[in-house]
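Handout, page 2. Input:
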Amino acid sequence: MVKLIYIIIYFFLYSLVSSNEKIEINADQFTYDKENTRIYATGNVEIIDEEFKLYADKVFLNNESKVLSARDNATIFNSDGTILKAEKIVADQSLKNAVIENSYLFIPGEEFEKEKQFLKIGAKRVERRNRVWEKMDYGVFTACKPCYNEQTKKYDAPLVQLKAEKIIHDKKNLNVKYYDAYLDIKGQSVFYLPYFTVASPLVKRKAGVLAPSFRQTHFFGFETDIPYYYPLSDYQDVTVIPKFSQKKNPALFIEHRKNFFNGEIKNEFSGTIENQKVNQVKKDKQRGHIKSIGSFDISKNSYVDYQIHRTTDRNYLNTYKYGYKDVLESNIKIESLRQNNFYSFQSYLFQDMRKEFNQRQTPKILPRLILDFNSDYNLNNLNYNTKIEFANIKRTDGNETKKLFFVQSLFFPTILPDGTFLKLTTDLNAGIYNIEKYDNPENGRFEFNEYKTNYFPQISLEINKPFFRKKKNYVDIITPMANFVKGNKSAFSRKIPDESNINNFEFDFIDLFSMNRLAGNDRMDNLSRVDYGFSFIKKRFKDDKEMTIIEIGQSYQFEKHKYLDSNSGINDKFSDIVGKFQIVPHESIKIDSFFSLDKEEFSLKTAYTNVLLHQKNSYLSLSNIHSPPVVNISGENEIEGENQFSISYSQDIAKYWTLTGSTVFDKKNKIKLHNFGAKIKYEDECLGFSLNWNRQYTHNPEDPTSNSFTFLFSLKEIMENNL
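Output:
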């Protein structure tokens, strides 16, 4: 509705004569009075100004009273693209007052199906006073395209239109009042309001109730959320969303947002008092959450970010649909980037929601300091990178670590005359640690409080040589690659706790040519090895677009890893074969994947694959995550494997009608559904609606399944929803 009122403002701001008196007038005939104070122009009259062009059969100008009158086929083309047609226009040249009769205003709208659309406003009479008060008599608005009926030889009534006997816009009090308003469908009035008011389009935000949502779940029964929006100022607002349900007490969600000159914050609060049965006795339980995110610029190169995210219990966010995550993170970061150097001060708190995880073993990082110094990257020169990290890691139960780690890297890149690229890199790694309450697997002793050091160098030599082959429309680039890494056994030091959790390591192509393939710097890759592989890229000449990318490689380690998981991919001398590819055989087909193959059987081990198929009337998206279980040294599964599929299909079933279906399931051992749903949508240039159904299996003991039915209705430029 607000958009409609904004359109009405166009009617006055751009459809009348400019106050600039220096205008050009052309006509077939001019008639002047004796004092030349009044001018009559007739026949193909043109009035041209910087802001508009007016065409009419008759125009009257009174220079003494500053009144302009145009009639008979009066048309104004404005510089903003709007077009006004009227039977008669009378206005003063200051634009403060005007009367327009039998007018039609055409305003450029958004494209629909690659065709430019026009919004249309008609009124019997428009009156304007002192620029702050405007009235439309018998106003009509529609965004629909007019349809000509060949049988009646007339234009049919628009599919959707809004009309009112009187509309008053008060720009002083910033409101718009409607009297006797109707919503028409195919010329038939289906909804009537004798009176209502909305905010003026000069008001950017207005307090009021937003569109509600409805759900049906096992835990709540029938439930509804009814949001209420309230702007506190031009720079902050609040949205209050009470949740009412059939089976549970009401819950309240509050979202607060505020913009500052140098940053912004967003806060969320929710809570409820829930009646739960404990040993057949009802017991009140307070549940809720808090989330606050902020970002502020300290200077041109420095900023501070923070996040607070906590909840009362493991299942609350999942059950109440308030944005569940496995791990809630609270942090503060003060960071600065100056030329090539990076400085960071960080602190972290975590709340782990996973059932199998012991909350008392959750780490707290208070604080973490990172200094990263870099030279300019220059060929045929010695470049450097210096990293310093200090971290204090604490726990309620388990080991605690304070560490200061230093890495000095020197590298020399060069390109030989034949195009061969070489880069020699040396790393010097050193660390000092204070470790408390650590069960040392290296010597079998429990160390209550120890100081330890670690020092080791590493070296690598990287080489690649691209080969080009030009074709008529494409260029092929084949690049063999190799990398030699001289490791150091002190890099994988078990006398230091593993805070980077190498048991979650997955070997892929991104890790292949890295000097350290493990995460973090607590336990680094300690074996000498040779990495080798190749890349193939096919590019199109006309837009330099990559149509095909294939990269495959493998490592040979001179020894076996002793402590990595048996299926880590790099535990044997020969690693798994890893690669990635992207294939675009046609503009409507795209396939990409990261994958690893078993080195002995060449069977698929891990794959992250996406397939996109798009035709004129249909769209198919298919994603697959295929990964084996993580097996520890004892042969036990620490993390279960998965073979998860995500499928989405959309089909245009008729003009303006679309049917969409989607599902996520895991095909490991047996099909295990995560969710599935469907949506049917109708949308033309002025009207749209959709019905969406989704069933989700949360595996949450409080709310194992939930059904969501959503109906949305949209009137273009009047009352819009994201369908």
